[in-house]
What does this fold into?
Amino acid sequence: MAKLSSEELIEAFKELTLIELSEFVKKFEEVFEVTAAAPVAVAAAGGAAAAVEEVEEKDSFDVILESAGEKKIQVIKEVRALTSLGLGEAKAVVDSAPSAVLEGANKETAEKAKAQLEEAGATVTLK
It folds into this structure.
């Protein structure tokens, strides 16, 4: 049997479906009594891990009120609608801008809050 080069092996793997590749990995682990996950984890610990972290989408956002704009009363009403704050507390948040309206919100909630506050006339950023 002729020995295949690394490039030839890679080309052969490209032809496999994910299921076939998964079955190959299981068989490889059985035959050689190894775990394929260990080398992958070691490789990921290098530069690849940093790249993956940058690509992963953020899942927690802070909604920051930068300024209330000209319709301060509307913005206070929106802050109250988005939070459980009372009138005085909501006014204090708006008066102390830039300040956090929501912290640790999921993407959908944060984007909805941003849209509502901007509609009321506020300037808002997500962090």
Q: What stands out?
A: Strands lie at 61-67, 99-105, 123-126. The longest strand covers residues 61-67. Helices lie at 6-14, 18-32, 37-55, 72-82, 87-95, 107-119.
